[in-house]
Each structure stands twice: as C-alpha cells, then as structure tokens.
Amino acid sequence: MRRWVTVLAALTLVVTGAGTASTAAAAPQAEVCATGWGSMTKAAPGSMAMTGSVTDVRTGRHACYDRMVFDIPGMTTADPALYWVQYVPSFAHPPSQTGIPVAGGAVIEIEFTAPVDDSQYHVGLADPLPGLDLGGYRTFRDAKFGGYYDGGTHIGLGVRAKLPFRVMVLPNRLVVDVAHTW
C-alpha cells in the first residue's frame, strides 16, 4: 500500500508540474541585448595622418548585432584615426557626388583617415568589399567602397533598416556594430 501511495504522489507531482525545477532550467533563455547605442552620428577626433593603411575588412555575426572590423595596423586607442559614421539618405563618391547604389533599407556611411593598402587589399570605386559574403546576416545587406578622397576612406554599409549602431576603436582596428533590433 505504501508503494502505491509513493507512486501516486510522484505521478501527481509530474502531472501538476510541481516538480518543474529541472524543466524550468532546460527552458531556453531569451537573449537580452543592450542596444541603447542610438542611430545618431558617431564621430571622433583623431590623427589626420595615419601611419597604417586598411589591410583587411571582415565581418561577424553575434547574438545581438552584426559586426564589421577594419584592420588598420598602427591605430591605437590613445591616438585613433579620425572617423565619422552616420546614416545617409544615399551613398556617393565624395568629390564627384556620383551615386553608388548600396542594397538595404538604410545606408551607413563609414569614413576614416586611413588609406586602403592596394598591395594587400584590392578594391575599386563602387566595388563590393572583397572577401565579404553578407548572406545570412540579420542586419547587414551590402558593403561598397566609395573611394579614398581628401584623407578619408569611404565605405557604404547597407543594412536591413535604420537600427542602433556603435563604433569602437581597438588596437589596430576600427569596429562598427549594428544591432539586430531596437
């Protein structure tokens, strides 16, 4: 009789959900994303004459944002390159104002004072950035080279919509993160 009472009590706990400690622990947790970065222009004073050149551009997918990294040997957090990152209504080559189509619901213009090293990183005006496959990204759609003019390299980054973004300077890198959501 005691065994039946124990079995019945155990079944009651399972059916009513009173013993859900292990079940709750197994439930997936929603990712909490801090995206209070805003969508306003991000700019920083810095050195107009960089000793390094852009040697590579790469991207990465993260849980809350897509990331674009510009490798610029010689860039330091103490003396970063001058940069200007902002949403623009359309992307163009600076001196001629010739439009460069960039796919996406919104376009971020990225400008910084480091030239592109043609010997290591080959890209022509209005070309997609070489080596980047943006298929499967939640936010990124397209990336085009807008030229090097008046001390600044110009990149057009097409994104799904106008979303929060941030800019960080790390040793030898300029990083642009664009959030997946507000």
Task: Please give a quick description of this structure.
The protein has 182 residues and is mainly β. The chain has two helices and nine strands.
Secondary-structure topology with pairs:
Elements: H1 2-16, H2 21-26, E1 42-44, E2 56-61, E3 65-71, E4 83-88, E5 106-112, E6 140-149, E7 152-159, E8 165-170, E9 173-179
Antiparallel strand pairs: 1-4, 2-3, 3-9, 4-5, 5-7, 6-7, 8-9
Task: Describe the protein in words.
Pfam families: AMIN-like. InterPro entries: AMIN-like. This is AMIN-like domain-containing protein. Residues 1-26 form the signal peptide. With 182 residues, the chain is mainly beta. The chain has a single domain, classed as Immunoglobulin-like. It is built from two helices and nine strands, in the order ααβββββββββ. The chain has a five-stranded antiparallel β-sheet, with no helix packed on it. A four-stranded antiparallel β-sheet has the order 2-3-9-8, with no helix packed on it. The longest helix has 15 residues, at 2-16. The protein is globular, with a radius of gyration of 24 Å. Mean pLDDT is 82; it is low at 1-27.
